[in-house]
Amino acid sequence: MKGTLPAHVGIIMDGNGRWAKMRGLPRIEGHRCGEESIMEAVRVCSERGIKALSLFAFSTENWERPEEEVSFLVNMSREVLRKRLEEFMSLGIRLRHLGRRDRIPDKILAWFDLAARVTAGNKGLNLNINFNYGGRREILDAGLRAAQAVKEGRLDSREISDFRLRDFLYAPDLPDMDLLIRTAGERRISNFMLWHMADAEILITPVLWPDFRREHLEAAFEEYGRRKEVAESDYGSLRR
Ligand code: IPE
Ligand code: IPE
Ligand code: MG
Protein backbone atom coordinates (compact mmCIF):
# COMPACT_ATOMS: atom_id res chain seq x y z
CA MET A 1 0.00 0.00 0.00
CA LYS A 2 1.32 3.43 -0.95
CA GLY A 3 0.62 6.88 0.40
CA THR A 4 1.58 9.05 3.33
CA LEU A 5 1.10 7.43 6.69
CA PRO A 6 0.21 9.34 9.84
CA ALA A 7 3.02 9.62 12.40
CA HIS A 8 0.68 9.75 15.38
CA VAL A 9 -2.70 8.05 15.38
CA GLY A 10 -5.25 8.61 18.14
CA ILE A 11 -8.27 6.38 18.63
CA ILE A 12 -11.38 7.12 20.67
CA MET A 13 -12.43 3.51 21.16
CA ASP A 14 -16.19 3.87 21.47
CA GLY A 15 -19.26 1.65 21.18
CA ASN A 16 -18.42 -1.25 23.50
CA GLY A 17 -21.65 -0.79 25.44
CA ARG A 18 -23.79 -0.70 22.29
CA TRP A 19 -22.01 -3.75 20.89
CA ALA A 20 -22.88 -5.72 24.03
CA LYS A 21 -26.44 -4.40 24.21
CA MET A 22 -27.13 -5.48 20.63
CA ARG A 23 -26.25 -9.01 21.72
CA GLY A 24 -28.21 -8.90 24.94
CA LEU A 25 -24.97 -9.02 26.94
CA PRO A 26 -23.81 -6.90 29.89
CA ARG A 27 -21.77 -3.82 28.90
CA ILE A 28 -18.57 -5.28 30.30
CA GLU A 29 -18.65 -8.00 27.65
CA GLY A 30 -18.23 -5.27 25.07
CA HIS A 31 -15.15 -3.99 26.88
CA ARG A 32 -13.79 -7.53 27.14
CA CYS A 33 -14.20 -8.11 23.39
CA GLY A 34 -12.59 -4.75 22.65
CA GLU A 35 -9.26 -6.15 23.80
CA GLU A 36 -8.73 -8.03 20.55
CA SER A 37 -9.37 -4.80 18.63
CA ILE A 38 -6.72 -3.10 20.76
CA MET A 39 -4.20 -5.82 19.94
CA GLU A 40 -4.98 -5.67 16.24
CA ALA A 41 -4.52 -1.90 16.18
CA VAL A 42 -1.21 -2.27 18.01
CA ARG A 43 0.01 -4.96 15.60
CA VAL A 44 -1.03 -3.07 12.46
CA CYS A 45 0.59 0.17 13.67
CA SER A 46 3.76 -1.73 14.56
CA GLU A 47 3.95 -3.45 11.19
CA ARG A 48 3.37 -0.22 9.31
CA GLY A 49 6.06 1.63 11.22
CA ILE A 50 3.68 4.20 12.75
CA LYS A 51 5.53 6.29 15.35
CA ALA A 52 2.81 6.67 17.96
CA LEU A 53 -0.60 5.26 18.79
CA SER A 54 -2.70 6.80 21.55
CA LEU A 55 -5.66 4.78 22.75
CA PHE A 56 -8.38 6.46 24.79
CA ALA A 57 -9.15 3.75 27.31
CA PHE A 58 -10.72 5.67 30.21
CA SER A 59 -11.56 9.34 30.51
CA THR A 60 -11.60 11.51 33.63
CA GLU A 61 -15.38 11.58 33.07
CA ASN A 62 -15.72 7.78 32.97
CA TRP A 63 -15.48 7.56 36.81
CA GLU A 64 -19.16 8.57 36.76
CA ARG A 65 -20.15 5.21 35.31
CA PRO A 66 -21.65 2.44 37.48
CA GLU A 67 -19.17 1.12 40.03
CA GLU A 68 -19.14 -2.38 38.58
CA GLU A 69 -18.23 -1.10 35.11
CA VAL A 70 -15.54 1.24 36.45
CA SER A 71 -13.97 -1.55 38.44
CA PHE A 72 -14.05 -3.86 35.41
CA LEU A 73 -12.31 -1.27 33.22
CA VAL A 74 -9.69 -0.48 35.84
CA ASN A 75 -8.85 -4.13 36.35
CA MET A 76 -8.94 -4.86 32.65
CA SER A 77 -6.14 -2.38 32.01
CA ARG A 78 -3.91 -4.36 34.37
CA GLU A 79 -4.95 -7.69 32.85
CA VAL A 80 -4.13 -6.49 29.35
CA LEU A 81 -0.68 -5.35 30.48
CA ARG A 82 -0.04 -8.55 32.36
CA LYS A 83 -1.14 -10.75 29.49
CA ARG A 84 0.36 -8.78 26.61
CA LEU A 85 3.62 -7.40 27.93
CA GLU A 86 5.61 -10.18 26.31
CA GLU A 87 4.08 -9.48 22.90
CA PHE A 88 4.64 -5.74 23.34
CA MET A 89 8.30 -6.50 24.06
CA SER A 90 8.65 -8.74 21.02
CA LEU A 91 7.15 -5.99 18.84
CA GLY A 92 9.62 -3.48 20.26
CA ILE A 93 6.82 -1.34 21.67
CA ARG A 94 7.45 1.48 24.12
CA LEU A 95 4.41 1.76 26.35
CA ARG A 96 3.37 4.71 28.46
CA HIS A 97 0.43 5.66 30.60
CA LEU A 98 -0.93 9.12 29.84
CA GLY A 99 -3.24 10.68 32.38
CA ARG A 100 -3.63 11.59 36.02
CA ARG A 101 -2.36 9.11 38.57
CA ASP A 102 -4.84 10.09 41.28
CA ARG A 103 -7.84 7.78 41.70
CA ILE A 104 -6.06 4.89 39.93
CA PRO A 105 -5.45 2.14 42.53
CA ASP A 106 -1.78 1.52 43.40
CA LYS A 107 -1.83 -2.07 42.18
CA ILE A 108 -2.90 -0.88 38.74
CA LEU A 109 -0.39 1.98 38.68
CA ALA A 110 2.31 -0.53 39.55
CA TRP A 111 1.56 -2.37 36.30
CA PHE A 112 1.55 0.80 34.23
CA ASP A 113 4.90 1.72 35.80
CA LEU A 114 6.36 -1.73 35.28
CA ALA A 115 5.30 -1.84 31.62
CA ALA A 116 6.73 1.65 31.05
CA ARG A 117 10.00 0.72 32.74
CA VAL A 118 10.46 -2.59 30.96
CA THR A 119 9.67 -1.15 27.51
CA ALA A 120 11.43 2.21 27.98
CA GLY A 121 14.41 1.26 25.80
CA ASN A 122 12.36 -0.10 22.90
CA LYS A 123 12.59 1.71 19.59
CA GLY A 124 9.34 0.66 17.92
CA LEU A 125 5.81 2.00 18.20
CA ASN A 126 5.13 4.44 21.03
CA LEU A 127 1.95 3.05 22.54
CA ASN A 128 0.11 5.45 24.82
CA ILE A 129 -2.66 4.21 27.05
CA ASN A 130 -4.77 7.23 27.93
CA PHE A 131 -6.28 6.20 31.22
CA ASN A 132 -7.89 8.63 33.68
CA TYR A 133 -7.05 11.05 30.91
CA GLY A 134 -8.59 14.44 30.11
CA GLY A 135 -7.27 16.74 27.40
CA ARG A 136 -8.00 19.95 29.32
CA ARG A 137 -6.46 18.52 32.43
CA GLU A 138 -3.25 17.70 30.55
CA ILE A 139 -2.99 21.31 29.35
CA LEU A 140 -3.81 22.63 32.82
CA ASP A 141 -1.18 20.35 34.38
CA ALA A 142 1.37 21.59 31.83
CA GLY A 143 0.52 25.19 32.74
CA LEU A 144 0.87 24.48 36.45
CA ARG A 145 4.22 22.76 35.98
CA ALA A 146 5.46 25.62 33.80
CA ALA A 147 4.38 28.11 36.49
CA GLN A 148 6.31 26.10 39.07
CA ALA A 149 9.38 26.12 36.81
CA VAL A 150 9.11 29.93 36.52
CA LYS A 151 8.81 30.21 40.30
CA GLU A 152 11.92 28.09 40.80
CA GLY A 153 13.86 30.10 38.23
CA ARG A 154 14.16 27.19 35.76
CA LEU A 155 12.07 28.96 33.12
CA ASP A 156 11.84 32.58 32.05
CA SER A 157 8.14 33.52 31.67
CA ARG A 158 9.00 35.58 28.56
CA GLU A 159 10.16 32.38 26.89
CA ILE A 160 6.85 30.54 27.24
CA SER A 161 5.52 29.71 23.82
CA ASP A 162 3.49 26.75 22.60
CA PHE A 163 6.82 25.20 21.72
CA ARG A 164 8.12 25.51 25.29
CA LEU A 165 4.81 24.54 26.91
CA ARG A 166 5.00 21.24 25.06
CA ASP A 167 7.93 20.32 27.33
CA PHE A 168 5.49 20.17 30.23
CA LEU A 169 2.93 17.86 28.63
CA TYR A 170 2.68 14.25 29.83
CA ALA A 171 4.90 13.00 26.96
CA PRO A 172 6.89 15.94 25.53
CA ASP A 173 8.48 13.89 22.75
CA LEU A 174 5.11 12.87 21.29
CA PRO A 175 4.48 14.29 17.81
CA ASP A 176 1.24 16.07 16.92
CA MET A 177 -1.67 13.79 16.13
CA ASP A 178 -2.15 13.43 12.37
CA LEU A 179 -5.14 11.14 12.36
CA LEU A 180 -7.93 10.90 14.91
CA ILE A 181 -10.26 7.93 14.58
CA ARG A 182 -13.50 7.62 16.51
CA THR A 183 -15.55 4.46 16.30
CA ALA A 184 -19.29 4.01 16.85
CA GLY A 185 -20.33 7.05 14.84
CA GLU A 186 -20.24 9.69 17.56
CA ARG A 187 -18.98 13.05 16.29
CA ARG A 188 -17.41 14.27 19.49
CA ILE A 189 -13.91 14.89 20.76
CA SER A 190 -14.87 13.93 24.34
CA ASN A 191 -11.90 15.78 25.86
CA PHE A 192 -9.28 13.56 24.18
CA MET A 193 -5.82 14.93 23.33
CA LEU A 194 -6.84 18.54 22.70
CA TRP A 195 -3.31 19.87 22.43
CA HIS A 196 -2.08 17.20 20.02
CA MET A 197 -5.08 17.14 17.68
CA ALA A 198 -4.89 20.82 16.71
CA ASP A 199 -4.23 19.90 13.10
CA ALA A 200 -5.49 16.30 12.95
CA GLU A 201 -7.53 14.71 10.18
CA ILE A 202 -10.70 13.31 11.75
CA LEU A 203 -12.18 10.01 10.68
CA ILE A 204 -15.43 8.84 12.17
CA THR A 205 -16.60 5.32 11.46
CA PRO A 206 -19.92 3.71 12.40
CA VAL A 207 -18.08 0.46 13.25
CA LEU A 208 -18.33 -0.36 16.96
CA TRP A 209 -14.97 -0.78 18.69
CA PRO A 210 -15.17 -4.57 19.28
CA ASP A 211 -15.78 -4.99 15.53
CA PHE A 212 -12.96 -2.62 14.51
CA ARG A 213 -10.29 -4.82 13.00
CA ARG A 214 -7.22 -4.73 10.80
CA GLU A 215 -9.13 -3.97 7.60
CA HIS A 216 -10.84 -0.95 9.16
CA LEU A 217 -7.56 0.53 10.30
CA GLU A 218 -5.92 -0.16 6.93
CA ALA A 219 -8.87 1.60 5.27
CA ALA A 220 -8.44 4.56 7.63
CA PHE A 221 -4.76 4.84 6.63
CA GLU A 222 -5.71 4.75 2.96
CA GLU A 223 -8.28 7.48 3.48
CA TYR A 224 -5.65 9.53 5.31
CA GLY A 225 -3.19 9.04 2.44
CA ARG A 226 -5.85 10.13 -0.08
CA ARG A 227 -6.67 13.27 1.87
CA LYS A 228 -2.98 14.18 2.09
CA GLU A 229 -2.58 13.62 -1.63
CA VAL A 230 -5.52 15.92 -2.39
CA ALA A 231 -4.19 18.56 -0.01
CA GLU A 232 -0.82 18.34 -1.73
CA SER A 233 -2.18 18.66 -5.27
CA ASP A 234 -4.64 21.46 -4.39
CA TYR A 235 -2.40 23.64 -2.31
CA GLY A 236 1.05 22.21 -2.81
CA SER A 237 1.87 24.40 -5.78
CA LEU A 238 0.69 27.51 -3.91
CA ARG A 239 2.93 26.72 -0.98
CA ARG A 240 6.03 26.38 -3.07
C1 IPE B 1 -16.05 2.84 24.97
O1 IPE B 1 -17.28 2.24 24.86
C2 IPE B 1 -15.27 2.36 26.14
C3 IPE B 1 -15.09 3.37 27.18
C4 IPE B 1 -15.55 4.58 27.15
C5 IPE B 1 -14.34 2.96 28.35
P1 IPE B 1 -18.56 2.74 25.65
O2 IPE B 1 -18.61 2.01 26.94
O3 IPE B 1 -18.57 4.22 25.76
O4 IPE B 1 -19.71 2.24 24.71
P2 IPE B 1 -21.08 2.98 24.36
O5 IPE B 1 -20.75 4.36 23.91
O6 IPE B 1 -21.89 2.97 25.61
O7 IPE B 1 -21.67 2.14 23.28
C1 IPE C 1 -14.83 8.59 25.26
O1 IPE C 1 -15.94 7.76 25.15
C2 IPE C 1 -13.85 8.03 26.25
C3 IPE C 1 -13.22 6.78 25.87
C4 IPE C 1 -13.28 6.18 24.70
C5 IPE C 1 -12.43 6.17 26.90
P1 IPE C 1 -17.26 8.03 25.99
O2 IPE C 1 -18.27 7.07 25.51
O3 IPE C 1 -16.96 8.00 27.44
O4 IPE C 1 -17.59 9.52 25.59
P2 IPE C 1 -18.95 10.30 25.49
O5 IPE C 1 -19.64 10.12 26.81
O6 IPE C 1 -19.69 9.68 24.37
O7 IPE C 1 -18.56 11.71 25.18
MG1 MG D 1 -19.37 5.72 24.60
CATH class of the largest domain reads Alpha Beta
Order of strands in the sheet with most strands: 3-4-2-1-5-6
Question: How does CATH name the architecture of the largest domain?
Answer: 3-Layer(aba) Sandwich
Name every ligand kind in the structure: 3-methylbut-3-enyl trihydrogen diphosphate, magnesium ion
Q: What's the helical proportion of residues?
A: 40-55%
Radius of gyration: 18 Å
Give me the CATH superfamily of the largest domain: Decaprenyl diphosphate synthase-like
Nearest-integer average pLDDT: 96
Beginning-to-end CA distance, first to last residue: 27 Å
Q: Major β-sheet, in short?
A: 6 strands, parallel
Total strands: the figure is 6
Q: Please give the domain count.
A: 2
What structural class should be given to the helix and strand makeup? alpha/beta
- Report low-confidence residues grouped into runs of 5 or more: none
Binned strand content: 5-15%
CATH topology label of the largest domain: Undecaprenyl pyrophosphate synthetase
Strand-and-helix sequence, N→C? EHHEHEHEHHEEH
Question: What's the shape?
Answer: globular
Number of helices: 7
